[in-house]
């Protein structure tokens, strides 16, 4: 049984738990997390992305987000066995996704998703003006695009918010831009010089600090009391760093999810371009790595769009497991939405190379699974060459449920792989932020050590690694050879 904060009974001792929310690209997740990290209840609900490949548009309805958040939370409340009292809420989410909202949190237009590519020229301009690149630019390129192309929607907005910041506003009534340790807020004078209304960027607040109390309207929708503290969240990728238990230099992560990503914590000097380095939620650390675009989505695409959903994910992976490493010489480039790290090429496209009549469905699936591992190794390669070492790589999200997929990642990368007991690490990270924010835990490292549990570890198999080494070289060469063709196809698609 679950009760909200303040609804205790004298005869029952209630165990404290936090409601952790993750607003993902295609679904909302809600977890009821106990103080020791146990997942007491879990729910999820999906929503669509409105995509137009010709224009680069990728938009979503924030009201659909809210309905999904409420449905997921209610499902999570149905799950607990035992007595729990919700003592705090924290929301994390996808990004960089822009929500232009009025003072009450009502969106002035659909949210512009992180997959939206219409603001590429604005991103290049802001890179030059601010000296930032990629993730560090956040929602700013999309906000600048909005002001230039949809001035009415921009003019109606009081705030430019990331997805999780908008959810924080909907929950608490407080509009705040959350920042992690080491994250520098943008130079507002520089923004003004390119015509971006910096007064629509809300005041900054540190992630993990209490935003305010749960609003009556939100409390009614969630079935919770209105006085619950709402703690400021951050991007779900950074939340996954917490939920996977990354603390020490050498701790690495495969972020899973729709896009996929790899990062490793470090603290010393390293000779890599600045765009490889990003802030993290812990003092004295930074991350080296990058996010991809569709390594997780690729298997869903194969299952739903190519195979029409006639075969489930587990059955497909079983077929891949019965196929030899290397997929019979079949290679897949997972660039179905272009690619971010490490090639940063929005024109790149998904490709099966080496396909023959000898290949079965299992070969296609195995090639897709191996491609996600090749993509991780592709990002990790220059980092390792710079002298950084990886102790082990934590696996996050749905892919972590597959021992076959986890072993492929260990064999391709050469990293020891660790699988958390709760794969939804962004949800656990939100719970960790909430627990520290209300004083349930003294600090983030202490919270991670007590709330993150590792279920299993897998070591790479040297013989299989030898099989993958030449295939990885072919994977990289394939993109290099096809790059001019990708660029030409992109030109043709826009005519």
Explain what the structure shows:
Helix 8 packs across helix 13 and helix 10 (313-321) crosses helix 11. The chain starts with a strand and ends with a helix. The protein has 2 domains: 15-234, Nucleotidyltransferase, domain 5; 245-434 and 452-494, ATPase, nucleotide binding domain (Nucleotidyltransferase, domain 5, 2-Layer Sandwich), CATH 3.30.420. The protein is built from 15 helices and 23 strands. By secondary structure, it is of the alpha/beta class. The strands form 6 sheets. Strands 1, 2, 3, 4, 7, 13 and 14 form a 7-stranded mixed beta sheet that branches. The model is unreliable at 6-10 (pLDDT under 50). It has helices spanning 62-78, 120-130, 140-149, 151-155, 163-172, 188-193, 216-222, 236-243, 295-306, 313-321, 361-385, 403-413, 425-437, 444-451, 462-493; strands at residues 2-4, 15-23, 27-34, 39-46, 50-52, 57-60, 84-93, 98-101, 111-112, 159-162, 177-179, 204-206, 210-213, 229-231, 251-254, 261-266, 277-278, 286-291, 331-333, 351-353, 392-395, 417-420, 454-458.
């Amino acid at each position: 049984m679950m009760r909200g904060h303040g609804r205790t009974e004298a005869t029952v001792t209630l165990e404290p738990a936090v409601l952790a929310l993750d607003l993902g690209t295609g679904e909302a997740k809600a977890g009821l997390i106990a103080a020791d990290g146990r997942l007491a209840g879990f729910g999820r609900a999906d929503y669509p992305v409105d995509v137009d490949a010709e224009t680069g548009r990728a938009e979503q309805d924030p009201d659909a987000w809210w309905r999904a958040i409420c449905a997921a939370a209610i499902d999570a409340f149905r799950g607990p066995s035992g007595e729990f009292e919700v003592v705090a809420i924290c929301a994390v989410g996808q990004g960089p996704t822009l929500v232009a909202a009025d003072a009450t949190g009502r969106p002035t237009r659909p949210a512009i998703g992180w997959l939206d590519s219409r603001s590429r020229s604005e991103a290049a301009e802001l890179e030059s003006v601010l000296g930032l690149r990629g993730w560090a630019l956040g929602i700013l390129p999309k906000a600048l695009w909005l002001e230039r192309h949809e001035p009415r929607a921009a003019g109606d907005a009081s705030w430019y918010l990331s997805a999780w910041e908008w959810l924080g506003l909907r929950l608490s009534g407080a509009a705040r831009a959350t920042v992690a340790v080491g994250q520098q807020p943008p130079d507002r004078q520089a923004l003004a010089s390119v015509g971006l209304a910096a007064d629509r960027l809300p005041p900054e607040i540190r992630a993990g600090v209490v935003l305010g109390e749960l609003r009556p309207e939100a409390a009614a929708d969630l079935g919770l009391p209105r006085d619950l503290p709402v703690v400021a969240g951050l991007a779900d990728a950074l939340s996954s760093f917490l939920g996977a238990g990354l603390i020490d230099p050498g701790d690495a992560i495969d972020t899973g999810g729709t896009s996929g990503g790899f990062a490793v914590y470090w603290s010393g000097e390293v000779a890599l371009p600045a765009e490889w380095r990003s802030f993290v939620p812990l003092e004295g650390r930074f991350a080296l790595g990058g996010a991809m675009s569709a390594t997780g989505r690729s298997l869903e695409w194969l299952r739903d769009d190519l195979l029409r959903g006639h075969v489930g994910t587990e059955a497909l992976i079983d077929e891949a497991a019965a196929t030899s490493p290397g997929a019979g010489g079949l290679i897949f480039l997972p660039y179905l939405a272009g690619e971010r790290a490490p090639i940063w090429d929005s024109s790149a496209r998904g490709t099966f190379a080496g396909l023959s009549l000898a290949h079965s469905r299992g070969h296609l699936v195995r090639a897709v699974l191996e491609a996600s591992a090749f993509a991780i190794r592709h990002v990790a390669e220059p980092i390792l060459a710079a002298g950084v070492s990886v102790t082990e790589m934590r696996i996050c999200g749905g892919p972590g449920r597959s021992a076959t997929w986890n072993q492929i990642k260990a064999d391709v990368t050469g990293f020891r792989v660790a699988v958390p007991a709760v794969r939804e690490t962004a949800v656990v990270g939100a719970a960790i932020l909430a627990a520290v924010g209300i004083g349930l835990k003294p600090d983030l490292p202490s919270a991670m050590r007590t709330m993150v549990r590792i279920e299993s570890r897998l070591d790479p198999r040297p013989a299989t690694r030898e099989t993958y080494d030449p295939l990885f070289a072919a994977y990289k060469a394939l993109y290099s050879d096809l790059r001019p063709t990708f660029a030409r196809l992109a030109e043709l698609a826009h005519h």
